[in-house]
Amino acid sequence: MKAVEYYKKEEYIMKRDKYLNKLISNKDNGFPKVITGIRRCGKSYLLKEIYKAYLLEQGVTEQQILLLELDDDRNFRYRDPLYLGEYVRTYSKNIARCYVFLDEIQMVYSIVNPNLTEGRHIPAKKGDTQVVTFVDVILGLAREKNIDLYVTGSNSKMLSSDIITEFRDKAVNIHLAPLSFDEFYTYKGGNETEALYEYMQFGGMPQAVLKNENDKKEYLKGLFDTTYFRDIIERNKLRKSSSLDELCNIISTATGELLNAEKISNTFRSVRHEKIDPLTVEKYIGYFEDAFLIRAARRYDLKGRAEIGALRKYYFTDPGLRNARLNFAFPDEGQMLENIIYNEMIYQGFTVNVGTFDTVEKNQNGKSVRKTNEVDFFARKGIRQYYIQVSADMSNAKTRMREVRPYFMLKDQIRKIIVINKPIRECLDNNGFTIIGAPDFLLRFIKE
């Protein structure tokens, strides 16, 4: 049963149909379902409320559902991987079909193989090789014929390159994001333009959406200090957070700009009058990516058809979180719209890069010079391919020429689109380029 059919029977405050349908389609498939995503984006709600209610509607009993919240101090014993496996097997032993939800699996620490420690459970240290991890528990429980296993986690360390290798073809990964604009508007309704402006300011973190404006601001700012930064500092054993904090502010201000570690290092030096080497910058950016706070859009050579270079753009997983870092100063609408469009296209299943290509042109002195041209996004999904420019306003002739100029030099047949922050429907300009308002693009165009 699809989520859209199920919701005719039950109404929830926020529908996450895309993710519910993924869970439904993978139910009882013999593989663990691993749900990842930034903290507070609704992973637990998806399992404990939406999916659990679906199972109960299908005739599954409460006894058949085991929920273990591993970030609850009452369950600290089960952060030991072997005790966790033992408890789940004991609970499900006499149940013909048991649906097991393990919430916040990254809380489970690794231990040295007890066979090497006279049976003692000793936490593993970095560099230990003979260890038992949560991966072993997940794969072991998934082999139990009567268990259908669902796992959530809040940072990408649980899906690092080594772990992905172990999970390969043995688990289903479902990555949950904050509410997309499509999901947000389904909940909010009303005027599309007003909804987009609210989303542009405060984003789609589920708990923030439910609050009034002042509470939204305090909640989103607090998430950084009490949750995200604390997690990053503890997980990576950092001594202080000031450099991490300033780096996050720099990335927030430069949302949608092409950056690399050296450029950020130079900016840090000019802002803080302190040195931070590019390698440290790269490491810290990795921490933000691990926490699912930001994503990188890599450059793609539109003529050579390959990803290139170290420069990339960084976008926040949620625009409200980005604005919280800047204390909700009046946002640059172009930056925010670009961030939202990037997120929405990822949500809709597109592969998205920053488009770039070089041309040779004459300068004012008549000398031939090489110039790099940029298209905000090159997006692909199946046979659909789009070049996309994003602009807050196209009424200014100079701005309009800047946006369309790359399109005149791209002679291929890929559809060329300009998204503007206006409530207009899709149309063509005199050059055959598609002009479309942001609400129409987000709520209709990319979904077709």
TrEMBL record:
Chain ranges of the AAA domain: 32-184
Entry keyword set: ATP-binding, Nucleotide-binding
Record-annotated DUF4143 domain positions: 230-391
Keyword ATP-binding on entry: yes
Lineage: superkingdom: Bacteria
GO MF annotations, alphabetized: ATP binding
One Pfam family of this chain: DUF4143
This protein's name: ATP-binding protein
Source species of the chain: Bilifractor porci
Taxonomic lineage: Bacteria, Bacillati, Bacillota, Clostridia, Lachnospirales
